[in-house]
Amino acid sequence: MTEKIKIIKADGREDFFSEKKFENSLKRAGASIQEINEVKEKIKKELRNGISTEEIYRKAFSFLKKKNKPVAGRYSLKTALMELGPTGYPFEQIIGRILKKQGYQVSYPEKVKGSCVSHEIDVVAEKGKEKIMVEAKFHNQYGFRTDLKTALYVKARFDDIKKSGFNRCWLPTNTKFSKDAIKYANCARIELLGWNWPKGRGIEVLIEETKLHPITAITSLSSGEKRELLNKNVVVCQDLIDNPRILIETGINKNKGDKILKEIKELIRIN
After folding, report:
1. Does residue 107 sit in the same domain as residue 175?
2. Residue 125's beta-bridge partner residues?
3. How far is it, in rounded angstroms, from Cα 115 to Cα 107?
4. What is the C-alpha separation between 251 and 123, in angstroms, rounded?
5. Are residues 201 and 234 both part of a single domain?
6. What is the pLDDT tens value at each position of the chain, 271 positions in all?
7. Which of 75, 110, 126 is the last residue in one of the domains?
């Protein structure tokens, strides 16, 4: 019955509600079988033709937040990444730290001299003979896809700075890519990293593997507290595990701070 319900995706396209896809998203977040069944039953009762994927997400997130905050935090990862804005700086930091976990030396140079002009590069990563230009693209608009124009722009910049020793070009984003962007990147040898891309190795998978979840995924923090922490350059949950005193400095009392740290440890699945 639910398979025949028409939903509106974030980019405005219509699709049919897939109970299987919805169930898989809950499984990836670590929800138990009981939690999955409870959420599914709740959502099924509220499905109607024309309901948006955003509304379905909000209803599921609200339910999970009451039942299991760490699961809710993992389920909200795409939204949490968008909440890192409005600037792209925190997202660039996460990309840099993912590369560090992979053994690269990472720097955030202000400018790199090219053959024609100087370029502001988001991240430079080096390991052995590899030297990667990383041009991170952050977006906080639902339904946005990083498109062909962006891929063309990044390739042009890469070609201009090759003489500085760069031999790999990486375009990470927190969104999905358009089909033309993927087609061009495969041809032009631009390495893409985005939501669910490459298949099975998208940014959501790397964040989970490296335990570099953004602080915006912590459900116990208010929007104001998240913003204040980001202003202090606290970007990922691990930063608060390493230095819990930051919570006190942000005006969060010890009782709430302890609850936040407990949620973080369960969110990023550490003992």
Report:
1. yes
2. 106, 132
3. 21
4. 32
5. no
6. 455 899 999 989 999 999 999 999 999 999 999 999 999 999 999 999 999 999 999 999 999 999 999 999 999 999 999 999 899 999 999 999 999 999 999 999 889 999 999 999 999 999 999 999 999 999 998 889 999 999 999 999 999 999 999 999 999 999 999 999 999 999 999 999 999 999 999 999 999 999 999 999 999 999 999 999 999 999 999 999 999 999 999 999 999 999 999 999 999 987 6
7. 75
Closest CA to 137 of 85, 69, 63: 85
**Pairing between β-strand 14-16 and β-strand 6-8 as defined by DSSP bridges:** antiparallel
**Residue range(s) defining the domain that contains residue 138:** 89-205
d(CA 49, CA 60): 17
**Token pair of 56 as six digits:** 């379905």
Domain match, 109 and 167 both: yes
Q: Total domain count for the chain? A: 3
